[in-house]
Write a structure and sequence with these properties.
Layout: E1 6-7, E2 21-22, H1 29-32, E3 37-40, E4 44-45, E5 49-56, E6 62-67, E7 69-70, E8 80-85, E9 90-97, E10 104-113, E11 116-126, E12 131-132, E13 134-135, H2 142-146, E14 150-158, E15 163-170, E16 176-181, E17 198-200, E18 205-206, E19 212-218
Parallel strand pairs: 4-7
Antiparallel strand pairs: 1-2, 3-8, 5-6, 5-9, 10-11, 10-14, 11-13, 12-19, 14-17, 14-18, 15-16, 15-19
Length: about 220
């Protein structure tokens, strides 16, 4: 087993340009270790929340993805990956969000359906108010992005110190189809994870046109 360290001074609220390079040769992961198999990844950020992905720079295919954690809160037990082979054109990229202002929260979510997986975000969600999450890249709602597919998994990471009260899947009439309660993460009392506030698997919920994905959160 070998380990490599990759870093980047990343820009908030974008994927573009946030490419991690190794600390010795300043090379991207595909150039540095092509053919290697990744079995774990420990990603850290300074404040807020952060997603990462392993992506082919030419085809844009994403072969692995996950969450970062606040510096100093990493844990190997939460860093394991499904083994994935690094391709020569692969790059590691990050999508960070900062801490929001008083009385509001920022949050990210990996949402997987039978059509694929997308990163969703919400900026400055008011405390206690159901607030819609949109795709990070195209600003689409759940129904616009994944109409006529089945929802499989949801993993939510709120900013540091935030409590995820619950999430909602809402139909085109505003009715709540599905809801689940979340938690705090990191060093807070009651935390079960350093990486996520909520992690749901095996959902199998059909998604209709006009449906929304809401979060209800309370800031630190």
């Amino acid at each position: 087993m070998m380990s490599k360290i990759f870093t980047d001074s990343s820009t908030d609220d974008v994927w573009s340009g946030n490419v991690l390079t190794d600390t010795i040769a300043q090379q991207s992961i595909g150039i540095l270790i092509p053919g290697a198999t990744l079995t774990f990844a420990q990603a850290e950020y300074e404040s807020g929340c952060m997603a990462w992905r392993l992506q082919n720079a030419q085809t844009l295919r994403v072969s692995s993805r996950g969450w970062g954690v606040l510096t100093g809160q990493n844990c190997m037990s939460e860093s394991k990956l499904q083994p994935v082979q690094v391709r020569p054109n692969d790059i590691l990229t990050t999508y960070p969000l900062p801490q929001a202002g008083a009385g509001t929260s920022n949050a990210l979510a990996w949402v997987s359906t039978t059509k694929g997986t997308e990163l969703f975000k919400v900026i400055a969600a008011p405390d206690g108010a159901p607030t819609g999450m949109k795709t990070a890249v195209n600003n689409q709602s759940l129904g616009d992005a994944f109409f006529n597919s089945n929802l499989r998994t949801i993993s939510v990471q709120c900013e540091d110190g935030c409590t995820l009260d619950s999430i909602q899947i809402v139909d085109e009439m505003g009715g709540v189809v599905f809801t689940a309660q979340g938690n705090v993460r990191g060093a807070g009392a009651g935390s079960r994870s350093n990486t996520y506030n909520l992690d749901l698997r095996s959902l199998n919920i059909p998604i209709g046109k006009g449906w929304a994905f809401n979060v209800i959160a309370t800031s630190a």
